[in-house]
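Q: For a teaching session next week I want to show students how multiple molecules come together into a single three-dimensional assembly. I've collected the sequence lines for a complex. Could you give me the predicted structure tokens for the whole thing so I can convert them for display?
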Amino acid sequence: MLRLANISKSFGSTRAVDDVSLEMQPGEIVGLVGENGAGKTTLMRIVAGELQPDGGTIEAPAPIGFVHQHFVLVNAFTIAENLALVTPSGARGLGGWAARNGRLVAPPTRPGPSLTLGVTGGIELPDSSRLVADLSVGEKSKLELAKAISRKPSLLILDEPTSVLTPTEAAELFAVMRRLAASGAIVVFISHKIPEVLEIATRVVVMRGGRIVAEGGTAEELANAMVEIRGASSERRAAGGITAIVGVAGNGQAELAAKLRREATGIVAAIPEDRTRDGLIAEMTIAENLALRTKVPAEQLIAEYNIKASGPKQKAGSLSGGNQQKVLLARELSIEPNVIVASEPTRGLDAEATRFVHDRLRDAAARGAQVFLITSDLDEAFALGDAIQVIYRGRLSEKLTPEEAAAKAPQLMAGL
Amino acid sequence: MTRAVVAVVAALALVALTGWLFGHSPVDLLSILLGGSLDETILKAIPLLLTGLTIAIAFRAGVWNIGGEGQFIAGALAAFAAARFGLVAALIASVVAGAAWASIASLLRWWRNAPEVLTTILLNFIAINLLGWCVNGPLQEASARYPQTDAVSVALPQLGEVHAGVVLAVAAAIAMWWLLYHTSEGLRLRATGFNPSAAKFAGVHVEAQVFRAMAISGGCAGLAGGIELLGVTHRLFERFAAGYGYSGIAVALLAQLHPLGTVVSAFFFGALATGAGELQRSANISATVATLIQAVVIFTMILFGRRARA
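A: Of course. Below is the structure for the complete assembly, covering every listed component.
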């Protein structure tokens, strides 16, 4: 069995997992649900030994199979070679086919054997000599599953495994999960799709803000437990034009932001989602980063935005995350934009910096700018949005008032 | 700065040690190597400074122009062709030709996303062979004895023992320093080099920056070729470029891509090249020792450089 007691884990000032205790029995299929950033993946990485907890005790069975949300495959290798890399017996488990002359050989000219039961626990992977680079996403995710199962795990963790699967493939996956559980393994299924979880799990655990907040319930109860709704519109000021677009990450937000930027008229300010790639230029100074777009002197903006730095000549890369975000905000808002497209503007910021960013966006809206706030944080959407739209699988819902959104947004975010 | 000094000291120490193993006094060796004539050092430093700037501005913009050699030849060929219209015309032609030759690579990058590291090197081979054909064919001297051209009709004025190209080269370094660190275009160019994605978000037209940097870069190399023709060789011949385009990489890396640092670094490599010639004459040590030092300097700069961003 799996026994977790008082597990905690912080990253900087964020408490990713907060005093979690949980037990799972062999044969259980546990659905672990929650919003993005609720701590589900972090908790399971601690269980799998990939992360060290700050405190608490773990009793876990071995071996543990972990299918990550992102593929961990060697693209230039074949299916068989990828499996041979992880099977404890090396290539022997593959019937010697891939291990000729002590090397992993995959004859490209004739098809390799189809790998089924035994090796892969009942997952069909036709022609194992195909290169991973040529597989579809669904096949890649099957291969990941096969890799995990080939080690005969007593605990199998699946992190959002269905996000790239077709319904048939998902059904196939569920069959494998049931078979594994029936043979006495514990299966943990991380997801934010409630209908699926209800279909497969024997037990559902809801996480929010690093804590376990609920166990079991109907679809609606679960959806509501996933997101905390604070007094919907109380904080809001009467200001024109903040549209909050809320959704679970990976539902087409990046494409939407690009489209909004492209189609906007007038001066467009952009707060990018991927800050290391698209945000400040780490090698350049604060002053240089600001001068790329604005004519307002750096000293003035540093004072106005309360940026904690030794001076305008400090390298942007040496600032804390919150202060980097303030520099970016200072630059983008000082050009007096007509349109602001802000993607996850407060992700990873502490409470004070978050409040600061929110105030600035409200000020900009009050000055007449049209603000699009793209966020996966429903609280943030309620705190700022005059109107709220939900994005799910690349599609926007109709515009909701905050009152309507309080009732409907969680279900829309989960695709219900 | 520290890194540059370490690189130079390491390279010189290696040469001294190797020389000592072969029975040469390290002190004599280094004093010959670094004690070449000042005039000759400056003459060698002029093309190195310009090809160093070629690399510096391109690398600053994140474009890997390895084609200094070809652009140098293109510049010299154009200067030769335009010499009949006077000195100024020849110099302008060399800049334009170098810029145009480099722009072929930026066009291919823009059109088919062809990596400029490869295209600029391939353009070097084309330029080298084009020059070879010219001096064996249409541009061969009237007497047709050697594979070389006749002497050009115009020449750079002399300032004592050194030709006026030194003024142009130093002026180019100062101009480039001003452009990079004191203009908003320079800021955008550097932003492009550090992080094109973030630069784009900040409103920089990244493609235009790449084109401009490549053109300026090629222009510098072209000018180097023109100046070498009009100030030193006065003729074109097969091995005219003599590796100046590639040596520019060492010059620029030692200067850590700073235009003013490039002046110092070009002077150092100019002194080395001069000293290496002297070493060959007096101690019978091959002049390739200068190339060896270049290589060690590049290795040291790269090995102890800031690690590239992931």
